[in-house]
Design brief:
Among the domains are: 95 residues, no CATH class; 91 residues, no CATH class. It is 29% helix and 19% strand. It is built from 7 helices and 17 strands. A 3-stranded antiparallel sheet has the order 6-8-7, with no helix packed on it. It has a two-stranded antiparallel ribbon with strand order 1-2. α3 packs across α5 and α3 packs parallel to α6. It is globular, with a radius of gyration of 24 Å. The N and C termini lie far apart (70 Å).
Length: 273
């Protein structure tokens, strides 16, 4: 009897030692847990793109949106918005800010009237939704925009004017005039890194290599010169050209806007019906 108990105990111990290694769900859930410095040490787990986009679609397709966009039914609206979400999100998301993001999407679409920052949120994953993005570019690797980096951990694409390129880093704020050569050095508002020091942003007409050189009120044009951002209803080709940050398509023409009242004729409704 004693021999049987000893054998049983050994089998139980072996199961405890090796069971987790044999469980793919355990590995998947625990190997990818990370500590998020931005949330005071809160553990961040990945949320599949499919699961996140399903929640997004449910939040976007309010009764007001279904009616305004003349969707055949709510399910059709959700299917189209799920597809749109998947085009915006390139990888798994983080659960750290997921609830805040989905709540913001719900509020934005509640009345089918998208205003100001709501447009950036639902069209460009801005505001509360930017922090759910895990990106596909690793720390220290080359990037062109913030959303390529792991925004859930506070990473951003830090660029230097002398190279015109950027890398994913957790920004360390640098005061005007100070050394900014470190890869994670980010100059404070109104200044940019020329490759050595933080200097004042440039006025319109000055040569540039990155948008940061032109400040919050300007952008670096294709001709390589700083240009002032344009107002609502002016023609545009990208968000960077607009004062309010949104260049939208209206009946085949791209113009800067800060409000979209959804209707069947609006291009935004193509992803909502």
């Amino acid at each position: 009897m004693r021999a049987y108990l000893i054998i049983a105990g050994c089998l139980c111990l072996a199961g405890c030692m090796f069971g987790r290694d044999d469980d793919p769900d355990f590995d998947r859930d625990h190997d990818h847990e990370t500590t998020d410095d931005r949330t005071g040490g809160q553990t961040s787990k990945p949320v599949s793109r499919g699961s996140f986009c399903q929640q997004w679609a449910e939040a976007a397709c309010s009764s007001a949106v279904v009616s305004a966009c003349q969707a055949s039914n709510t399910e059709e609206c959700r299917q189209r918005q799920d597809e749109f979400c998947r085009m915006q999100v390139s990888s798994d998301t983080s659960d750290v800010a997921r609830n805040e993001c989905i709540s913001a999407v719900t509020a934005a679409y509640r009345d089918a009237d998208l205003r100001g920052d709501e447009l950036a949120l639902v069209l460009r994953m801005g505001g509360a939704c930017s922090h759910v993005l895990r990106g596909t570019v690793r720390s220290g690797e080359a990037c062109t925009s913030d959303n390529e980096c792991d925004r859930s951990k506070g990473y951003a694409c830090i660029k230097k004017a002398d190279t015109g390129a950027g890398t994913c880093q957790i920004p360390q704020s640098i005061s005007p005039g100070r050394d900014c050569r470190d890869a994670d050095a980010a100059c404070s508002a109104g200044f940019y890194c020329d490759g050595r020091n933080c200097i004042e942003t440039l006025p319109a007409g000055e040569p540039c290599s990155i948008h940061e050189q032109c400040g919050e009120d300007g952008f670096c044009s294709e001709e390589g010169k700083c240009q002032a951002r344009v107002a609502v209803n002016d023609p545009c080709s990208s968000d960077l050209e607009c004062e309010r940050g949104i260049c939208a398509d209206f009946q085949g023409e791209q113009v800067c806007t800060d409000r979209v009242l959804l209707s069947r004729a609006d291009p935004l409704c193509e992803n909502l019906r």
